[in-house]
């Protein structure tokens, strides 16, 4: 079968991860186009990845007749518009999370996706494609933990990235720590429980970088959530982890409990020397979720070839964003926020 020809928009840190995977690690596809405002990024795509078509505007790229699908790895605020443009131009779409930052715009995007049932749409919740999380899901679905009662999630970026984030926060809108980071954990909570979140209460603190107060960003945020079946979830999101990149999930049920990555180990090597017994830690998300990023890209291409839709839907993006925005609202207003109706727009 002929290879699926792919174009990518956004060649920042995450964009380069996806682009390299598409060019080198995913069979059945060919990365032929790249779009970026930054000429150095386009030069990288040409020289390092062998991309043949480069574009300064996304609108021009999605009109190219040689492209079958697009990977959207642009800033979050552009996702909805770019998803719609791609669909309207007959392209399959993979979009990084979040699906968008505005609930009304996300719902409009859903309608466009639904108008094109023959086109594949997939959202980048890559943790679902991590081997450890998939194994944990099998155990939960098999009833090994009984009925879930509490889920605890940590997502903490390495402190080495804080300086650059402070600069980014002053110039751009990430959507806030709950939309930008906790949305992965929110998706996992929904995935494991198959339930929706009803109530959230969120708090936060800027300690190492109080200047984030001035731009409305958080260094560390936490949220307590209650689901529709009374299951509880605790989220911790941060940007100042000194030992590396710490992503951990704990599931507690009536018959047992499990933890995914209780320690963010880089590999299975233990070093014993004058410093004691040392285990190296993963230092960033491309390292920790290397295989998950490859697996989700493989699934996207497989869905196109097999003419089926992936497990992750636009509704997963909508519901996770609703919860993340409710967390943001709770933090900003110091109030408990109830998501009254999953079909109604969150204020």
Key terms:
six-stranded parallel β-sheet, oxidoreductase, Dihydrodipicolinate Reductase, domain 2, Inositol 2-dehydrogenase, 11 helices, 2 domains, 28% strand, Rossmann fold, Gfo/Idh/MocA-like_OxRdtase_N, NAD(P)-bd_dom_sf, alpha/beta, 347 residues, seven-stranded mixed β-sheet, 37% helix, single chain
Number of distinct helices: 11
**Tally of distinct domains:** 2
Q: Give average pLDDT, whole number.
A: 94
Task: Let me know the largest β-sheet.
Answer: 7 strands, mixed
Strand order of the largest sheet: 12-11-7-10-9-8-15
What fraction of the residues are assigned to beta strands by DSSP? 25-35%
The Cα radius of gyration reads 20 Å
**Helix/strand/pairing class, anyone?**
alpha/beta
What proportion of the residues is helical, as a percent range?
25-40%
CATH topology description of the largest domain? Dihydrodipicolinate Reductase, domain 2
Assembly status: single chain
Judging by the overall fold, what is the CATH architecture of the largest domain? 2-Layer Sandwich
